[in-house]
TrEMBL record:
This is Ca-activated chloride channel family protein. Gene3D superfamilies: von Willebrand factor, type A domain. It comes from the Bacteria. Coiled coil: none annotated. The lineage of its organism: Bacteria, Pseudomonadati, Bacteroidota, Flavobacteriia, Flavobacteriales. It holds the Pfam family VWA. Residues 29-179 form the VWFA domain. It comes from Schleiferia thermophila.
Length: 452
């Protein structure tokens, strides 16, 4: 008994640890992709674009080194940094400082040593950034692209960015454009969240804004509203996922705490979520964007009633299944006879897998129990001298079922009603050896059908 209790205790402990890990604060990994192309030597207020960018990025890295309350790692990828222009080298991009907890000064030293040299292979830099993020289950991967130009190597940065997001490798990138004109800005807006830095002060402000957004977390709760628009529905599984990549953030059983309120979950303001509640039928919220400035309340109508399908006796069946279909015919649920299920309010088609199937249309009302009583089956007893082919047809001429062609004794449950059985021995090779018998099935009774 003690060993059983210990085992149960550790199961509870491990379950708790799994829940804690699932909501633990992730590591935020920020990859800076920095433009060191030839055009960065252009004049920009107090110096060249490169000089200003190096100085302000250095200030930002110093600030990040002081962030202790958040788990943050940074890395640096360059492009256009090692090959002169002309000629054009579209492979001129490299991860120069990988992710690490204390690499801030190393990144600063690399940035301060840069000289504008090459071309602008933005698509290739983004594509190769896949390799810059080591596998990590609990990480938020962000890219901050700093550029003073647009793609010059024929690639499609927008398509690459879309692929990175769809695969769940990164959250939608930040793009900081230094002195881009209107046409260039439009070309870069599809790559990620675009911020324009037309002046030095704009660049400083935008850098701060981007990092602030990158480090922000928020909270939310999921309210499931009943017919009175109160959040009293619960005890149903739900999934919260990244709408772009389908990466699952939470998969839990919705619960109301001791105060009758849904639990609070941690969320990411940078992610667009899709919330799926696994009710019958499922319902969902799409395009969910959390605000970082407040606790977010997500409300989803979940007006449910109960469906109870029963029969006084299950005669002749090992088990009896009930199929719930939408009005269009899609299967929504499969349940056993004499059980209850919570169903969204609405109109449905019910099918009980008796012989023949029992059909009825039902209307589920919120907060009410809808009961469907299926007539008790009767039994068909049919015996032949030799094995053969036999089918049961109802009084409307619809086939009900075929009997086992290897057997000579048959005991089949059927719904009450009038039927015919058509039989021909296997050995007989003439249709005139077919025999037909009409019979009636009565609830709870056995009907014996003889051939003579």
């Amino acid at each position: 008994m003690i060993s059983v209790m210990k085992r149960f205790f550790w199961i509870l402990v491990l379950s708790y640890v799994q829940v804690v890990l699932s909501v633990a604060q992730p590591v935020t990994r920020i990859l800076f992709i920095f433009d060191s192309s030839y055009s960065m030597q252009a004049r920009w207020e107090s110096g060249s674009r490169m000089d200003v960018a190096k100085r302000l990025l250095g200030e930002l890295i110093d600030s990040l080194a002081q962030v202790k309350e958040a788990r943050v790692e940074i890395a640096l990828r360059l492009y256009g940094h090692s090959k002169g222009y002309p000629p054009q080298d579209c492979n001129d991009t490299r991860l120069v400082v990988p992710f690490g907890p204390d690499n801030h000064q190393r990144i600063k030293r690399v940035v301060q040593s840069l000289k504008p040299m090459g071309t602008t292979p933005i698509a290739i830099a983004l594509e190769r950034s896949v390799e810059d993020f080591p596998p990590c289950e609990l990480c938020r991967n962000l890219i901050v692209l700093i550029t003073d130009g647009i793609e010059e190597c024929g690639g499609d940065p927008c398509q690459v960015s879309e692929q990175l997001q769809a695969k769940g490798i990164v959250i939608k990138p930040f793009v900081i454009g230094i002195g881009l004109d209107e046409m260039q800005r439009r070309a870069m807006e599809c790559v990620g969240r675009y911020y324009d830095a037309g002046r030095e002060e704009d660049f400083r402000r935008v850098l701060g804004l981007v990092i602030s957004q990158a480090l922000e977390r928020t909270t939310f709760q999921l309210n499931l509203l009943d017919a009175d628009q109160y959040p009293r529905e619960s005890d149903v599984a739900f999934t919260v996922m990244d709408q772009k990549s389908s990466k699952i953030h939470y998969r839990m059983m919705h619960t109301l705490n001791s105060l009758g309120m849904p639990d609070t979950l941690s969320g990411d303001p940078l992610v667009t979520y899709r919330v799926v509640v696994h009710s019958i039928p499922q319902v969902e919220l799409r395009d969910v964007q959390l605000s970082s400035a407040k606790h977010n309340i997500l409300a989803l109508p979940l007006q449910r009633g109960k469906l109870k399908v029963k029969t006084a006796k299950v005669i002749g069946y090992k088990d009896l299944k009930v199929v719930l279909r939408s009005e269009e015919g899609a299967i929504l649920n499969l349940q056993d006879i004499n059980t209850e299920a919570r169903i969204l309010a609405g109109t449905y088609r019910l099918e009980v897998l008796t012989h023949p199937p029992y059909f009825t249309d039902i209307d589920i009302k919120a907060g009410e129990v809808t009961t469907v009583e299926v007539p008790v089956a009767g039994m068909l007893s049919f015996q032949t001298v030799a094995s053969g082919y036999a089918s049961v047809v109802d009084e409307n001429g619809q086939r009900v079922l075929d009997l086992d062609e290897q057997a000579t004794r048959h005991l089949i449950p059927l719904q009450p009603g009038r039927y015919s059985i058509v039989y021909r021995p296997k050995a007989a090779r003439d249709l005139f050896f077919s025999v037909t018998r009409d019979f009636e099935i009565i609830s709870g009774a056995t009907t014996v059908v003889k051939l003579n």
